[in-house]
Amino acid sequence: MTVRKAVIPAAGLGTRFLPATKTTPKEMLPIVDKPSIQYVVEEAVAAGIEDILIVTGRSKKTMEDHFDRAPELEAELAAKGKTDLLATVRAVSSLADITFVRQGEPLGLGHAVGMARRHVGDEPFAVLLPDDLIHPRIGLLARMCAAFDSCGGSVIALMEVADPSAYGCARPEPAEGGLVRITEIVEKPASADAPSNLAVMGRYVFPAAIFDAIDQVTPGQGGELQLTDAVALLMREQAVFGFPFAEGRYDAGNKLDYLRAVVELALEHDELGPGFRDVLEVICRREGIA
Ligand code: G1P
After folding, report:
1. Of 71, 74, 90, 245, nearest to 156 (Cα)?
2. From the CA of 236, how far away is ligand 1's center (Å)?
3. Per-residue pLDDT for 1 more than 80?
4. What span, in angstroms and rounded, lies between the C-alpha atoms of 248 and 246?
5. Ligand 1 centroid to 168 CA: how many Å?
6. Which of 17, 20, 164, 271 has the least CB density, counted as fewest CB within 10 Å?
7. Is residue 285 scored above 80 in pLDDT?
């Protein structure tokens, strides 16, 4: 695997999820029994990546604590003989080699990814936006890393949506290996101007050249330094491919889609699944849901 590093920009305020996110980072909201950021880290690990940089901001301390050792908790679980829980807690802190850097100012996603330059150096790397939760069964990032190795250009996850105006939006041309070649990319176009219905979902594999493109970006949509604009600049120099996929993505920053993720993943949970199915059946019957 040539992609050994990943960057997770997690500095956002999470205003779409207030009041839950008034004091809790949105990335720490649980999906069943794990905070959503843990699924994202596990997706990177499943792609063979062990070196992860998380770009954070103010009030994100609990996220750092989550991936750290917890000596008092571990000692108490050991003393009480709760070995399964102890193993679960320890496993989180040894998932990957995780480093944190602070963004300082909320200047945009392009700026946040640019903060990773020193850490990433000259290597290709992955970017995972934690609002986009990808079902582990999809193995999306692992497949994108394999595509990066064979196509020799950036690889960006794309999904067809009814209205791409809330996303980065790409114009595709046919390419080989299940990919499309992106010929135009624009951040949050007006519906009428969208180049297609293919929306950028938050998974990217980039060569280090993206950092030079980020340096050239000027404030764009929303007055922010946009990653999408850096991709558009990179496309002038080298090929950028889209990796279309059709299912298994949840918007963890949207209350309704968050609930969908919780319900689906709870139903599939080894221990909780059967009991939760019974609970759901009772609720559905009572509510007249078929
Ligand atoms: C970001 C990106 C956008 C992408 C989206 C995916 O937007 O800028 O290109 O389509 O994530 O979730 P945000 O949702 O942070 O405004």
Report:
1. 245
2. 22
3. no
4. 7
5. 6
6. 271
7. yes
